Amino acid sequence: MLRKRIIFTLIYDQNHFMLSRNFRLQKVGNLKWLEKNYKFQEIAFSLDELIVLNASRDKKSIEEFSLMINGLVKNVFIPIAAGGGIKSVKDAELLFKNGADKIVVNSLLIENPTIIKDLVNKYGSQSVVASIDYKKTSNNIEIYINNGNLKIDLSLEEYINYISELNVGEIYLNSIDKDGTGFGYDLETIKQIQSKITIPLIIAGGAGNEIHLIEGIKQKGVSAVATANLYNFMGDGLSNARNKIIKNGDNIANWNVHKRDI
């Protein structure tokens, strides 16, 4: 059985990292600021993976984004998945060359599924993560692409089936309603679709404390829990969460996540 994972998501917008709440962005700081104020190199020891998403609203420069990834991997020695603005195999190749271990695709899943198949054929399923952003209404679940601005005419179950046929390696399921709230994952939706997903599932949107991570990782079919909550999970937040998950007997890698000299 594959071990479950804790993932941290960084939201990027034109040389800065952002806080996101319901997909509304607030600037935090650049890469140097992140390293100086949050000792990200130490925090990484409590993580299994890092996801970095380019959420730039105006123009997504894949060149600029790849340079930031290149700087990030010099100090963070865990797998990194990067995405946002990938339009071609060449764009993905640039991210891989600059240190990404996986790529994350969202709008491209609808706009050009042929490229998704090309990416899977070239780099393998395990290197391609499909990102799904969704909102709940009173009687429906709506799927959005293009930074949450364009609704597509498929149900969540239909979209999951569609993505599965593209042979991607993982699904990153993100609740727009829960995004940045710190109120916990949308467990209701996760329970509704968990039996319908046949590939590893990463859940995101809403984690604000260690209890939320523990609740999420216990869900059937969930292979990883992700959080983008910079303030709530810095300091000892991530290491405490990991230690509690280990103490609970969940199937997660066990190593010393206490502070260590770098």
3D structure, described in words:
By secondary structure, the chain is of the alpha/beta class. It has a single domain, classed as Aldolase class I (TIM Barrel, Alpha-Beta Barrel). Helices cover 32% and strands 26% of the residues. Strands 1-4-5-6-7-10-11-12 form an 8-stranded parallel barrel, surrounded by 5 helices. α4 links the parallel β5 and β6. The two termini are 32 Å apart.
Q: Please name the CATH topology.
A: TIM Barrel
Multimeric status of the protein: single chain
* Average predicted confidence as pLDDT: 89
- Give me the side-by-side strand order of the main sheet: 1-4-5-6-7-10-11-12
| Total number of distinct structural domains | 1
Query: Which range best describes the helical content: under 10%, 10-25%, 25-40%, 40-55%, 55-70% or over 70%?
Result: 25-40%
CATH class assignment: Alpha Beta
The major β-sheet equals: 8 strands, parallel, barrel
The ordered string of helix (H) and strand (E) elements is: EEEHHEHEHEHHEEEHEHEHEH
β-strand percent reads 25-35%
Radius of gyration: 17 Å
The dominant shape is globular
* Annotation field: number of helices: 10
Instruction: Tell me the structural class.
Output: alpha/beta
- Tally of extended strands? 12
Label the CATH architecture. Alpha-Beta Barrel
Low-confidence stretches: 258-262
Q: What is the CA-CA span between the terminal residues? A: 32 Å
